[in-house]
Amino acid sequence: MSSPNADNGAGLVNGLISGFYKTATGLAPDRIAEREFGVGNFDVKISQRHMSFRNEHDLRGYLSANAIPYVSSSSAYYKFPTGRPMERKGWMGSELVFDLDVTDMDLPCQIKHGKSWVCSVCLEEIKKETIKLVYDFLVADFGFSEKEIDVNFSGNRGYHVHVKNKDVLMLDAAARKQVTEYISGVGIDFDKFFMQTSNIWDKETYNMKKMKMVTGPNPKEKGWGGKIARNFISSLDAGPSALERMDIDAETAKKLYRNKILIERGIGAGSWDFGRGISVKKMVEMCRKMVQNQAIVQSDRIDRNVTNDPTHLLRLPNSIHGGTGLIARKLAAPKELYRFDPLSEGIAFRKGFVKINANTGYELRMAGQKFGPYAGEIKVPTYVGVYLYLRGLAKIINFI
Ligand SMILES: [Zn+2]
């Protein structure tokens, strides 16, 4: 975490945070009085917990008066949110929450700029991952409705997803772990997806005929079977090199690509018979790799503890992130993800300009504009100056 430099910045940022909370809206989570809160400073994100607020007015007043840079709230509802130890709180259930963070991904751009910097590609990729979690898993497989799912930008490198369906509230840690394992592709029995029949009825000769016939999942199936089928079809559409990445040799990949229309039609009906070239064993291996690729991505990208621990505190939606000065903006609906731009809609401090002394290696895109790279003194919009300052890449000289 970046720690701000000791200069004019600290006072200025504190003033901005205090001003932000004076008029902030949408801060109160549902059943606010039953939630536990935690607050932090620029060095520790949660330095004090077991707090509670009766309503949004009290919460806003506290955050403004103390210029709080980090505030978190529980995914849990409690009878006594301030009770200590945890057993005395009277747990009444918890949302199912997911924390997706781009630092858990391995992206080509991160090799260039390192994991401490977040570029627009990083933010786009973690957004796609969040879309995948919501629509490929939570909606498609678990059957939650979009209305039961809240999504918010984390304020820094990713997104938080809260599921508020009443059936999930009472899930214990073990059941939550099963959810993370499922979305991470842990424990899938790959062999059960494919079947090879040796004898089929020959309609022309009215005899059983020796013939290999491979059947497998179709893209409309629920669960991992359908995902495997859809994933294979999209790799087929993407071309031979995408197939080679699944360990299919170059010659076979080209042949499959040439026949893609027929193959896709076949998979649509559950037939995975591609003629010579790919055995069932190979197919199972290929799918294992396909799922593993997806699964590693998912298991790495989801901080499992956040999901598994029903007493976890997570950034309060619509509050400030003290490492960027951005708002952990809550989206009106999950589908807003498709058009959401965190570095525009997450901006908190829109007014005025600051003079900074900056040393940034990379271009920053905020509010649709490019800023930097900078080396030396420069006048920038307040939100840019605060962002670079909190990331430890600039000193704030003064307000202009
Ligand atoms: Zn990047």
Taking all Cα atoms into account, the compactness measure Rg is: 25 Å
Could you say what the CATH architecture of the largest domain is?
Alpha-Beta Complex
| The level-1 CATH class of the largest domain | Alpha Beta
Basic shape:
globular
Instruction: Kindly report the name of the CATH homologous superfamily of the largest domain.
Output: DNA primase, PRIM domain
Strand content: 15-25%
- Give me the secondary-structure category: alpha+beta
Helical region count? Answer: 14
The largest sheet is: 4 strands, antiparallel
What quaternary form is this? Answer: single chain
- For the termini, the CA-CA separation is 28 Å
Strand order within the widest beta sheet = 2-1-3-11
Count of spatially separate domains? 2
The fold-level CATH name of the largest domain is DNA primase, PRIM domain
What's the total count of β strands?
A: 18
Mean pLDDT: 89
Written description of the protein model:
- With 400 residues, this protein is an alpha+beta fold.
- 36% of the residues lie in helices and 22% in strands.
- A four-stranded antiparallel beta sheet has the order 2-1-3-11, with no helix packed on it.
- Strand 12 and strand 13 form a beta hairpin.
- The radius of gyration is 25 Å and the shape is globular.
- The model is unreliable at 1-6 (pLDDT under 50).
- The protein binds zinc ion.
- Zinc ion is lined by residues 107, 109-110, 113, 119, 121-122.
